[in-house]
Amino acid sequence: AVGYWVYDATNPYTGTIDDAGAVWVFSGGASGGGPALIAPSGAAATSFSTGYAWKMEGASSNAYVGYDTAPAGDLDADGTDDLAITTYRASSYLVYGPLDTTGASYTTSDADATFSGLKYAVEPAGDVDADGYDDIWVGSDSLYLFSGTPR
Length: 151
Known about the structure:
By secondary structure, the chain is mainly β. The chain is 0% helix and 40% strand. Strands 1-4-5-9 form a four-stranded mixed beta sheet, with no helix packed on it.
C-alpha cells in the first residue's frame, strides 16, 4: 500500500477536497513483479491515478489519510490479510481483507473499524497475546496494542 497524506481528493458534487489524503494498493504480477512506483519529492498524486487495484481517500479536507499504512496481518483470522491506515491528525482505520481489487475507490467512512484519536503510526505485531488472532500496534501520543478478534 502506498499512502500520500497531502493528496487532494475530488468530490464530484463539491470539487476539490484539500489534503484529504489517500492510500492506493497495487497488485503484483503472477511472477512476483508489479508496478515499479517511483515518486520523487513533489511528484503529483496523479502519478498514482491509474493502475491501482484499490484506493481509499479521506472524506474531508485536512484528513491526511495515508500518513502511515501497514499490512495488519490477519486480525480476524479469516485467512486474508487486513490493512491498517493512519492519519496525521485524527484517527486510524482498519480495512478487513480481502480487498475488492477491481480498481474500486472508497472513503474512510467505508472502513471496517475507526480508532478515533489514534494517529501517526501503525505496525503489525503478530499474535502478541497468543489467542490465534494477529494484533497491531498504533502509535499516537502513546503506544497502544489492539488485539485481533473474530468479526
